[in-house]
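User: Hi! I'm working on a homework problem where we have to compare a predicted structure to a textbook description. Could you give me the structure for the chain below?
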Amino acid sequence: MTGQRLEGKRMIVTGAAQGIGLSIARACHAEGAALYLCDKDAERLDTAGEALGGRTGRLGWAAGDIADAAAMTRIVEQATAEIGAINALVNNAGVNVFAPPLELSEADWQRCFDINLNGAWNCCRAVLPGMIAAGEGAIVNIASTHAFTIIPGTFPYPVAKHALLGLTKSLALEFAGQGVRVNAIAPGYVETQNVTTYWNSFPDPAAARQRTLDLHPGGRIARPEEIANAVVFMISDECPFLNAACLTIDGGLSVLHHPT
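Assistant: Happy to help. Predicted structure tokens:
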């Protein structure tokens, strides 16, 4: 353990088995939070949980689909029984769904919103009563720069992420008087396995990677731990007046008028 910035936080992290979610879990665990991890991939989740130290009174996990509201209610109840009343939530789980608008299937449209929007709401709805009763809570929704910019060819993902940002701001105002803060982080490109897989889909993966890096003012993309460190700050008591905000972490890419 490297610090105690999250001492007293009992938090759920979704999509915690890999990538940004696992980095968030590591960072929060290192700062003293009691953690309950959730992911749809049970095998990877077990691996992640054991790597963090195994089941203790301060660390637990359960596989579940955030699109299933009843399942998330059960997981919150289980988490409360194992690590204590939940006073922090990181809605990290999400899925890329990209298709030409008029070719998008109804099933893919529904899947995009079930996970990227409804899933976050299911988790919020499950933890909010306990937070309100305790008079404290912090929720961070992992949005995306797709929440306020549009990249052609990515429909309907940005529609769902725009809505997630709206959910963040609306809940923040609804429950500010009950001591609950709701904020978002909007990452841009982050060097995860999903991004590597995207680069590998091109005939020349190295060239594809370099094109992505060249888009950015600093010539690189984010590391997962850089997103995780921001989550630690936003969940902590270091910023008690931060509410209904969205922190963009994209190296300045989204404010470029056009790529250099």
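For your comparison, note the following. Strands lie at 10-14, 34-39, 59-63, 88-91, 137-142, 180-187, 246-249. The chain has two domains: 10-187+225-248, 191-221. Good luck with the assignment!
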